[in-house]
Structure formats: C-alpha cells, structure tokens
Amino acid sequence: MFSVLRPHRFKLALLLLAANFGLLLHLASGELKPIAEWVWLDILGEGGSALLALVWLGLVLKSRPAGRVTNYLVLGLGCIFFSWWIDSLDEFIRLPDSITWDHWLESGPMPLGMILLTLGIYHWHREQLAINGQMEKRERLFREHRLFDKLTPLGGADFLKHELSASLEDSRRRQQPLSLLALDLDNFTAINQRFGHGEGDAVLQAISQLLVLNLRRQDLLCRLAGDRFVVLLPDTGESQARRLALELEIAVRSLAHKTRQHGERLQLAASTAVVMAFDESPDALLKRLNLALAQSRTTLAKSA
Amino acid sequence: MTLKTCWYETDSRFIPGHYQPAALIDLALSRDIDSHRLLRGTGLFHDDILAGQSRISPQQFLGLIDNSRRLLDASDSSFLFGQRLLPGHYGPASHALRHAQNLHQALQTLIDQQALLSPLAAPRLLLDEHYAYVHWLDSCGADEQWRFVLEASMTSMVAMSAWLSGERLPWQCSFRHGEPRYVEQYWVHLGEHTQFDRPLDLMRLPRHCLAQPWPNVSATAGQVARIEARDQLDQLGFASSFLDCLYDYLHAHVQQTPSLEQTAQAFAMSPATLKRKLHKHHTGFQQQVDRVHTHVALYLYQVKGFSNEEVAQYLRFNDTANFRRSFKRWTGSTPNLIRQLLMLG
C-alpha cells in the first residue's frame, strides 16, 4: 500500500499542509459556531463531497502507475478536494464579513482542478487507445476484467464463450464461415515435473505471446484451460484454418524457450485441431473442437 | 474381519503442513496471494509450516482449501493443485509410489498409504473382466469442499500415471455432480470423455493398463520404501479415517444390516458418541448405511452382472418392489436407469 503512495509523497504532503493551513487560517480569523447553528444537510453535502474526492484520489493512486497522466489526475482531484474542504469549513467556523479571501480560497482552486482533471482524463483516453492497440487479438469490443485469465494476458474460457456466441450470430447473419482452432502443448506435464510449475507458467506466458504474434488482426486468442489455447477465426473456412494451425505448430516448434533457472533450451511441440462452425450452440462447438483435438493426439501417439 | 481400533478423525492433527497443504500454499503464493490472508482462520502459521514442525487436522486442511478457493478465484485451482499432489514429497510413501513397477502397484501403495498420501479422499480399487475402477470416498466429511478434493484427487491420479508411465493413460472419469460451467478444465486435465450426473465418483481404464511395466523404476528402492512407509504408518497408529473404517465395517456386514447400537458396540463406543462423531463429519448413520447399500448394489450390477431380483435378495430385501423404492431413495433414480448410466460411454 505504502509503496503505491511513495512516488506521490510530496504532492500528498502538500495537500495535507494546504488543508491544515486553510483550517488554521479559518480558526485564526473566525469563531466556532455553536452546534445548534450547524446545518446538517450542508455538512453532509459539502463534507461528503470532500471525502469522496479523497476516495477518488486514493483509487486513482492505487490503480495507476506513477507518471504524467497520473500527476494530472492527482493534482486535479487535489484541487477539487481542497476547494470542497474549505467550503465545508465555513459550516463550523463563522468568519467576519470584512474578510473576502475565504471566497478566493474556496472558488479559486475549483476551476484549476477541473482543468487539470480534464487534461488528465483526456490523456488517460489517449493512453487507453495505445493500450487497446497492444491488446489487439486478445480482446474485442467487449471488455470484462473478471473474465481475464489469471496467468496469461489472455481472456479465459468464459470470455471465449461470450465472444463465440456473438461471433456465431454474426457469421450466420453475414453468411460467412467461422472456424475454431485448438492448440495443446505436447508433454506439458513433463515440463512441470522436470522444471517445476513456475517454469510451466513461464512457458504458457511465452507461448501466449508467440501465438498472438502469429495471428491475423481479426483473430481472437484465449486460454481455454491448462495448456490448451483456442483461437476464434472469423471469416475463415476450414482449409485456411488448417493452414493457420500448421503455422502455429511450426512457430511453437521453432520457439527456443530458455528455462529461467539455467537458461536451458526447451524443445516444445504442440498438437492442433480445427473445426468449422455449423448451426450449433457455442458449447456444442467447443465440445466438438476438443474431441477433434483428442482424436488428433491419439493418431499422433499411434504414428509416433 | 478384524476391526481396526484406531483411526483418524476430522480433528486429528497428523497431516504434516509441508506435505499436501504445502502444495496448495505454494500454488497460492505463485499467484501472488498474501500468506496471511491465505492462512487466516485455519490456525496455521507459514513459519511453522516452513520449519516442518506443524501438524494439521483434515478440518484445518479443508479450511485452507476453502480460503485458497476463494482467494485464487479461478476454475483451475483444484486441477493445478491435483497435478502437484502425487507422487509428492511425503517421505518413504512418495518414494514407494515413484518406484512402483506398474499402475497396479502404485494404486495398491496409494490405498495402503492413504493416510499419508491422500488423507482427505480414500481410493478403492475394483476390477471386472475388462476394466479397473478407482472409486473415491470422502474420508473426512469434506462437505462443500468435496468437489474440490475430488477434482484434485482424480487429477493427481491422472497426472501421476501419465508422468510415471511416460504416456497419457486412457482414464475415463465420472462424477456424481452435474456438468459445471468450467467443463473445459475437466476436458484438459481429466480427458474429453468425462461424464457427469453419474451414480458414483469413479474413474476407470482398461484392465491391461494395470500391469504394463513403468520405466525408470528401481524394484529394490520401491520394496524398501514400502517397508519404511509401513513403519511410518505404525508410528502414526492408524491407516484410515473413522468414516472409512465405518464404511468397511458396514460393507463387510451389509447382509446383516447392523443397527446403530450394534455398530457402536463394534466400535467400542456408546450410540450417542457414534452419533456425535458422525455429526462432526457432517453425516448421519442412516446416510452411511444407504451409501454402502448403494455401492454394493451398483457393484453387484456392474461387476457381477446381477439382476434386480438377485441384488434385492443379496441385500435381504423381502421383495423387489421394496428394494426399488429404497434404491430410488438412495440414489434418486431407479435401478434400471442407474444400470444404463453405469455403462459409461
């Protein structure tokens, strides 16, 4: 938690100082209102807003790496918090009418904060576009972070099923073929047994990067389970899908993955299977794909 | 049949923390789960486990499983855990597994050393003309963790036999629960022919696979490891759980159908104590009797090829109609339907 705050410690200290300074200034030049004069609705509204601004600030800091965009957002939210904070102070402290600086303190930081926040959000948007570019072939128009795989930067089985039903619908409407490709690493258990499960995880991460590089723009790669990956291939017939599958097999075989501990080269190989979608449910299609993969593996074992 | 007077219960602290629990802890830590949150409420401390001194009860282990399931929040947790379970690093018992000459010997070792190798789920081996069946029983009343334990146990068997034999064996698994949302995990880790809504938690493979010799095995090392493992069990003072002992007793006396009082007497305790112990394991006496009846009936159908009348007669039912009613109560299904389900795939 504290490591998240570390790069922002000066900004946060400044905010704390400013808030304190405002409080002291009010106390020095005004007098406390008796409780009977407190207007609870205003206290709740203005104080609550200030507190919420602080919560937003915390969430932004916790969810983003430090950097230019984060600085804009933090400064913007800091100004907004400050202005709401001063606003809520006069619910408790009465200032004499001769004093006008409180008005400046209250309303001055607000437009500045809004401008900074707007700048921050605008750059956040640009940043997101750049990230979307990087996420191409791993997600489409739909995003649901709960469906992301925990190990590889890919969608999991549920994400695949969601996208698959949408794509099936789409291909049916446009009268275009849709194919699915499954890829399963050979002897993956042996890697886990021999080099440890950490190495197995590293292999899966490397393979997922490799497969992304070998796909077309419109394809979608997901990790189904364990060492089995599934690629959704829109507008693709069975023969073209087979060609892609072969390319992926070759790519996996020529990947010179090195173990993390001793830099030893691992010989990897994969089996693939391809099915073209008929008029069927996503679940039935996935089942057929996996049976086809089991089939191709047994014929492989027999011929070996 | 001689009755073992000693067994372990769900609150017996005997599972070394650095055995099976460590496999789960390592999995969680590799996914960046905080160790304090992982062990919260289990009464365990990571430092004690690392020192190799902690002994935990099945109940605590199940608590750890509950925490891991929630924190990992992924449908492959049980399967990844299962892959790490066998042969494992559990002293001589693991050695004995590692140097088993074939699957049959490995299964025999697993069954003999169950308290050390698989304390939460007890495997039973059944054979018929064509198939070998491994039937898994809930040893400690795992309750809502049972599915996790079962997935892990079956995966451990599939993964171990694949590794030690050097090839993926044609296991077929069947489960009592319905098809889960994450069925693809079953396909990848247990095989594409996994079936659900079946009468038993069972895995089977062609019988000839049992005797196929395994490579890279030292017969002498295996022999010695088995003796050492037996010594370790002797020191522990028990080889199976209370529920499993009760199951064996009821199974051996299935034709007499012993009452609660008779059973309590055979276990040298009062009926109230027996009831209390069963309650502690989230079960009851009638539930256990019904379970044994179901298993015996299914065994007679499948392996002996008995008819309804013969099974009813064997279990001492007065008439077949009565038996069919009882069977419906045990399994929620009629004998004929179950017989169709038994013919897996």
Distance between the termini of chain B: 36 Å
> Which range does the strand content of chain B fall in?
5-15%
Distance between the termini of chain A: 54 Å
Which structural class do the helices and strands of chain B define?
A: alpha+beta
As a percent range, the share of strand residues of chain A is 5-15%
Number of helices, where a helix is a run of at least 4 consecutive DSSP H or I residues of chain A:
11
Output the strand order for the largest sheet of chain B.
3-4-6-5
What coarse outline of chain B follows from CA principal-axis ratios? Answer: globular
Largest sheet of chain B: 4 strands, antiparallel
- Provide the helix percentage of chain A: 55-70%
CATH topology of the largest domain in chain A: Alpha-Beta Plaits
Biggest interface, and residues per chain?
A: A-B, 24 and 27 residues
Q: Give helix and strand order of chain A, one letter per element, not per position.
A: HHEHHEHHHEHHEEHEEEH
Largest sheet of chain A: 4 strands, antiparallel
Cα gyration radius of chain A (Å) = 29 Å
Your description of this structure?
The complex is a heterodimer of chains A (304) and B (345). By secondary structure, chain A is an alpha+beta fold. Chain A folds into 2 domains: 2-135, no CATH class; 145-303, Reverse transcriptase/Diguanylate cyclase domain (Alpha-Beta Plaits, 2-Layer Sandwich), CATH 3.30.70.270. Chain A is built from 11 helices and 8 strands. Chain A has helices spanning 2-5, 9-29, 40-63, 68-89, 101-107, 109-135, 157-174, 188-195, 197-213, 238-254, 282-303, and strands spanning 31-32, 93-94, 178-185, 220-225, 228-234, 257-258, 265-266, 270-276. In chain A, the strands form 3 sheets. Chain A has a 4-stranded antiparallel sheet, with helices on both faces. Chain A has a two-stranded antiparallel sheet with strand order 1-2. In chain A, strands 6-7 form a two-stranded antiparallel ribbon. In chain A, strand 6 and strand 7 form a beta hairpin. In chain A, helix 2 (9-29) packs parallel to helix 4 (68-89), helix 3 (40-63) packs antiparallel against helix 4 and helix 8 (188-195) packs across helix 9. The longest helix of chain A is centred in the middle third of the chain and has 27 residues, at 109-135. Chain B is of the alpha+beta class. Chain B has 3 domains: 9-73, no CATH class; 75-236, no CATH class; 242-342, Orthogonal Bundle (Arc Repressor Mutant, subunit A). Chain B has helices at residues 20-30, 35-39, 46-51, 58-72, 77-85, 92-98, 103-112, 114-117, 146-165, 183-190, 219-236, 242-252, 260-266, 271-280, 285-304, 308-314, 320-331, 335-342, and strands at 15-16, 55-56, 121-127, 131-138, 172-174, 202-206. In chain B, a hairpin with a 3-residue loop joins strand 3 (121-127) and strand 4 (131-138). The radius of gyration of chain B is 20 Å and the shape is globular. The model of chain B has no long low-confidence stretch (mean pLDDT 92). The chains are: A alpha+beta (304), B alpha+beta (345). The interface between A and B is medium-sized, with 24 and 27 residues. Chain A: The chain crosses the membrane at residues 40-62, 69-87.
